[in-house]
Amino acid sequence: MPVKKAAPTKVYHVSQTEDKTMWRVTLAGGSKLDGGKAKIIKTFKTQKEAIAYAEQLGDGENTVLVHKKGENGGGIRKH
Q1: What is the 3-state secondary structure (H, E, C) of the chain?
Q2: Is the whole model's pTM more than 0.85, yes or no?
């Protein structure tokens, strides 16, 4: 009997846009066609809105990573 593979876990990131004016939700693992960049799903005015949306997408099955705000951003503060 064939063994079913589990669906791969998706990883959603919440981070600031380059100009630091908005928060974006992205799906990790961009393709070679787009230069390996993560796909931006949606942008929000606040980090709280972006986190809520990403957690809704995650639905308990996937991972949501929130990146730190500020000049040295990029580190993970919540997962």
Answers
A1: CCCCCCCCCCEEEEEECCCCCCEEEEECCCCHHHCCCCEEEEEECCHHHHHHHHHHHHCCCCEEEEECCCCCECEEEEC
A2: no
